[in-house]
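Model: You mentioned two targets. I'll fold them one after the other.
Researcher: Yes, keep them separate.
Model: Target one:
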Amino acid sequence: MAAAGAAAALLAPALPARTRAALVAAATGAGAFGGYDDIAGSGAKRGFKGHLGALAHGEITTGSVKLGGIGATGLAAAALTGGPAVDVAINAALVAGSANLLNLFDLRPGRAIKVTLAAGLPIGLTQLTRKPGPRGGVATVAAPLGAAAALLPDDLGERAMLGDAGANALGAMLGTAAAGTLSRRSRVAMLAGITALTAASEVVSFTKVIQRTPPLHWLDMLGRRPAHAAGPAGPAPRPATAPPAGEPVLAELNGHADRDPSSLAVPPSP
């Protein structure tokens, strides 16, 4: 995802050089630190509370390294976007906050990409209706949205998963697009929403809220395989009991322990 996003930014027409560089920096930086957490993280500490609490006791977790790295990535992307110091500060928080928040939604197939499309399309429409709008405004949003849409079928089909690397990169690019196209008032409002949702995630399960809200649940399931279709046609799935000795066990994914086990698609043994 990070590579696809960076490539989309490099190839997108009509983008100012600074905006192009900011999008590439956001994708590669957030993707690299997210990938580090994917590979080296244990998942023992989760959320801001877990990672910052460990850091307060002198323990450096992969998550705290990622938080610092994505913060630096946000600052770099904001500096490349340019503007007064107050805008750089707002944009840095917007890029880093978007990267972190989108990763919190990557718990079911296609969910994070659907959130990206739902958040990014209004930004693009805003640019279409503004006269005049920033040069390259729509193309700035099109880069992350195009990369996300291209990967949606594989994510929904459970042939691929964003992971921290992909979700962090996609969120950082979306934040960078907003930073380069929206007014200061709109960016502050967006940052306030991101902050509120991130704080809520420490005490509320997004998955439970989505499952209990019929329109959100319908949208979340749209395009996904039903849980009973985890493998090819064959014997009926076994009840949810401990697997017999010798049968493969689905490992929890670091940072994505709540993801539906059916998304890992292990066919039942004959």
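Model: Target two:
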Amino acid sequence: MKKISLLMICAILTCIMSISILSTYVNSQYINAQYFGRSPNILVNFIKQDPDPVEPGKQVEVSFKLDNNGTLASNFVLEIIPEYPFSLLPDESASTFIGSLGTSQDERQTVIVKYKLKVAQDAVDNNHKIKVRYKNDDINGWVTLDNFFIKVQSRDAILSVEKFFTTPEVTAPGDRTKLKIELKNYATSFLKNVKVMLNLGNNGGTTTPFSPIGSTNEKIIPYIEPLASVPIEFNLLVDSDAATKAYKISLELDYSDVLNKNYSKINLISIVVGNAPDLGVTLERTEIYTSDSAGSVVLRLVNKGAVDIKFLNVKVFNNDNVNVIGANEVYIGKLDSDDFSTAEFKLFIKGQNIVKIPVEVAYKDGNGNNYKEKREVELRLYSNSEAKNLGVKTSSYFWWIVIAIIAVIAAYYYYRKRKSRK
């Protein structure tokens, strides 16, 4: 009986010890598992860029916030990996040694790290990716993070009217003209939804005499590449009763940049309406019909065009056959359309058959354009006999007859006077 009791006591003690040992083993596994399952839990946040946004060619300072929600991180290093369009300033280091990055119960839990970067001059306007990486004693190698972005944007996305011209340069009333415009994108990123509109209505109190032909007065360009030029063209009809002058037209531009910022601007262009002057210079009359003669020569100037002529000046030059006597130029001034005027010169002419008188006319049209043209006016010369037959030159016998008649009359009066004295 005692032996049984002793065996039961031993069995109970054995069970109690086994349960104690088992319980101790289970708690140790849980603790160890809890201990060995914990490590540094690093959070890297991109918190700021200054300035925001940054312009191409400028400097930017970026700030990262480091948080540790796990166990102590020893020998912690953060490194930035700048790639185009970013580069570190010469005195900046890519790596920053933090040392210990603790928890809220231990040491410092949050650290701010800053880097200064240079933005490439030709960087396009966009959100550009920037990379960082970190390491500490608890991990093998680097942990790279690339979900950070720096906003790059030019101060203004500039779309410019680089040049414009019409073909023909001066358009006559009732004719058609082609207006060609070249737009240039001065931004380092593409522009989109570009709308170009000619305001052909009332401009500055004056209604323009132009109407679009073949298309409307509006053009749409889906996008323009960075630093690229794009030509556009409008076909216009000029009213038949349009006055001769330069007309100002508003050119309206609307567009957006890659960051969806909208722009609107108005430019002024001009289209010149008018005709080239048509000035005729001919011989009006002359007193010279034979060679080696002097006399007046009158030139006739006719404005045969639809444009008034202003500041008209006529000049005659000497040559082998023409010698100007006295003033060699005459100022006429304004000569209206479908009108004429004359200019008289005293000349000495020699030569045979056709003599060409060198003439220069200088004037301005209604739009202020200068003209200077060389002309030649033909003067026909005759022989003495031809001149007499044509009645443009009197025979030499005529003068003898005139002299004889004068002599007879003088003799008659002389005779009567002497007779009266006797």
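Researcher: Noted. Anything on target two?
Model: The first strand starts at residue 42 and ends at 50.
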